[in-house]
C-alpha cells in the first residue's frame, strides 16, 4: 500500500475526535506492516465509528477487505468512494485479488466513468463581472442580490435590464444572504476572513449579521457574534428566528430577527464543520450539511431531536449548499468532491434511497457554493465562485478570475 496521509480539516482538531482517530490510524498501519490484516480491518472499522466518512480510513478499510478475501465488501466500499472521488487510483497490490475478478474490475471502471462524466442539467440564469468573488445569492421579484467575499460588497442585479450595481460594502467578507420578511430587506453575514481585502489578523473570524434595506442600501440592524465564527448559511423561519451555521465550531446560532439580537447558540457535539442549512415547508425542521460527515435533520422544537441520513452507496461528504425541495427531496452542492457537482437526494425515513447527479464537472474552473430554491423560478446557484484563484497567502490571482455565473435548474 502507498500510505495515504490522514488528513482531517484543521477545524476538526477543535473536537475530541482527532486524537483517537490518529491513534487508531497509526495502530492500523502498524498492523498492516505486520501483515495482521484482521487487526488492520478491525482498527479501520473502529476509526469509522468516530468519523464515518474519512476517505483515507474508508480506502484503507476497502484494502483490508480485499486482503482478507472479502472482495464483495471491498468492491461496495470502493464504489462508494468513487462517488466522491472519480479519480481514485486502485493500483496498490492490495487490490490484486479484487481486480483479478473481471466483473468487479469492469464495474469499478464503469462507475469511475459514470461519476467523472460531464453532465449539465442547468443553464446560465445570469452572470456578473469577474471583478467579484461571489459566494451566495438571493432573489426578490426581479432583483437578485449577491455577496462578495473579496471586498464585502452586496451586489444588486436587475434581472430585467441585466445591469448590476454595488448596493453597499460591509466590514468583512460577505458570505450568506437570505430574503427578509418583506420585499425591502435582506439579511447578510460577514466575517473577518483571510481572503477579505482588508483582512485584520487580530479580528480573525469576527462575524456580523446585517439587516439591509434593499432600496437604499442602509444598514437597518447590525448583530455582532460574540465568538469566532464564519456563518456560511442562514434561514429565516416563520417564527422570525434566523438559524445560522458556524463553520469554525459546530454550532447553530439562533437570532431573533424582530429584536435584532443573538438569542442562543447550540452546539452539535457529534458534528465537525457545519455548512448549508435549509427549512422544510412546515418550518418545523431544519436540514444541515456537515462538510465532513453528511446531512442531519433537526427539530426546531427540540434540537436534541435529530438524525443523520444514512447513505451506503453514495458518500455525502463535502456538501456546501443545501436546499429543501419537498419532504423527500433535497438539492446539495458537493464542492469537495472530484469532480464538483450538484446532486438531488431522494430520502425515506433516515436513509438516502436515491442520488441523481444534476450538474457534474461543468467547464468552469471556479467552485459551486450556495443556492436557493424558489417555487416560481426553480433552483438557482452560484456555479463558479473564485475560491480556487488565490495563492497560499490569500492574494487573489485576478488574471484567472471568471465572470461569476448563476445557473438555474427548472422545473422540479
Structure description:
The protein has 412 residues and is an alpha+beta fold. It folds into 2 domains: 10-116, Serine Threonine Protein Phosphatase 5, Tetratricopeptide repeat (Alpha Horseshoe); 119-409, YVTN repeat-like/Quinoprotein amine dehydrogenase (Methylamine Dehydrogenase, Chain H, 7 Propeller), CATH 2.130.10.10. 19% of the residues lie in helices and 38% in strands. The chain has 6 helices and 25 strands. The chain has helices at residues 17-33, 37-50, 55-67, 71-84, 96-99, 102-116, and strands at residues 119-120, 123-128, 134-140, 143-148, 153-158, 163-169, 173-179, 185-191, 207-213, 219-225, 231-236, 241-246, 251-256, 261-267, 274-279, 285-290, 294-299, 306-308, 319-326, 329-334, 341-348, 351-360, 371-374, 378-382, 404-409. The strands form 6 sheets. The chain has a 5-stranded antiparallel beta sheet, with no helix packed on it. Strands 2-25-24-23 form a 4-stranded antiparallel beta sheet, with no helix packed on it. A 4-stranded antiparallel beta sheet has the order 3-4-5-6, with no helix packed on it. Strand 15 (274-279) and strand 16 (285-290) form a beta hairpin. Helix 4 (71-84) runs parallel beside helix 6. Mean pLDDT is 93; it is low at 2-15.
